[in-house]
Amino acid sequence: MQLELKSVSLVYDPDVQNPKKAVDDISLTLRKGEFAGLIGHTGSGKSTLVQIMNGLLKPTEGTVLLDGQDVHEKGFPLRNLRRQVGLVFQYPEYQLFEETVLKDVCFGPKNLGLPKEEQEERAKKALSRVGLDARYYDASPFELSGGEKRRAAIAGVLAMEPDILILDEPTAGLDPQGRNDLLAEIRKLNEEEGTGIVLVSHSMEDVAAYASRLLVMNHARLVYDDTPRHVFEHYKELEAMGLSAPQVVYVMHALEARGLDVRTDVLTIEEAKREILRALGRK
């Protein structure tokens, strides 16, 4: 499965004088099995871009292709796009509404016209994938903890069995343990199920630790599309955009400035630890 954006732009108010583009001439390709991070300062166009990917917004210029087909061509079933490219908005738990968790997660498969047995089968599988077992099926979604609500809401999208799952700030508002648990489940989806992930995040540490590809938005344009290691080498350019690099990058540059022969392209604490010990001649 392949989702391709070709020279995509979107203007919210095209009829006003000097209209401002929310997304400006972006081309990229996403494939099942990838894990991409998407970063950018507030107002850079991230949320608009992911809604274009999911078909919720139609670009004013350019083309969105799903396996080579124009998704906005007359007759194309947009339901297919939204089934294959799932989008989890920030604070998705605010969209929970059914009387039980199982019914809520069944909502998506029900809208696909699937028989009840298959709806429940998909819902139970999705709940299992986010770490919620049978004890939660008959519980009210409103009685769950914040982290459990977030998982249940994500399960509602997973029950549609998307090839690519877009998550807009999925850890916002969670405590550290809930955040770590959720990111671990997202990684498992990618590694064990082959689900493509697009993780929209303000945490440089998270995208450095989990993503193998990093997309950077600035003033509606895609300015970087590379590995996190290569992107964060441009930390000064990122700072000029109102972004930063993982804290460990700054530590390694400071050590190098003090004369320690270390690599400065490390991204995690574990990598930094090994590199510092190597530079000090210790195992």
Rg is 21 Å
At the fourth level of CATH, the homologous superfamily of the largest domain is: P-loop containing nucleotide triphosphate hydrolases
Strand residues, percent = 15-25%
Number of helices: 11
CA-based shape? globular
In whole angstroms, the N-to-C terminal distance is 44 Å
Assembly state (oligomeric): single chain
The CATH architecture assignment of the largest domain turns out to be: 3-Layer(aba) Sandwich
In a nutshell, what does this entry contain?
The protein is of the alpha/beta class and 283 residues long.
Task: Give an account of the 3D structure.
The chain is of the alpha/beta class and 283 residues long. The chain has 2 domains: 2-232, P-loop containing nucleotide triphosphate hydrolases (Rossmann fold), CATH 3.40.50.300; 246-283, no CATH class. Helices cover 39% and strands 22% of the residues. The protein contains 11 helices and 10 strands. The chain has helices at 46-53, 78-84, 101-111, 116-129, 146-158, 176-193, 204-210, 228-231, 235-240, 247-257, 269-279; strands at 2-11, 21-31, 35-40, 61-66, 69-70, 85-88, 164-168, 196-200, 213-218, 221-226. The chain has a 6-stranded mixed β-sheet with strand order 6-7-8-3-9-10, with helices on both faces. Strands 2-1-4-5 form a 4-stranded antiparallel β-sheet, covered by helices on one side. A hairpin with a 2-residue loop joins β4 and β5 (69-70). α3 packs parallel to α5 and α4 (116-129) crosses α5 (146-158). The longest helix is centred in the middle third of the chain and has 18 residues, at 176-193. The radius of gyration is 21 Å and the shape is globular. The protein starts with a strand and ends with a helix. The mean pLDDT is 92.
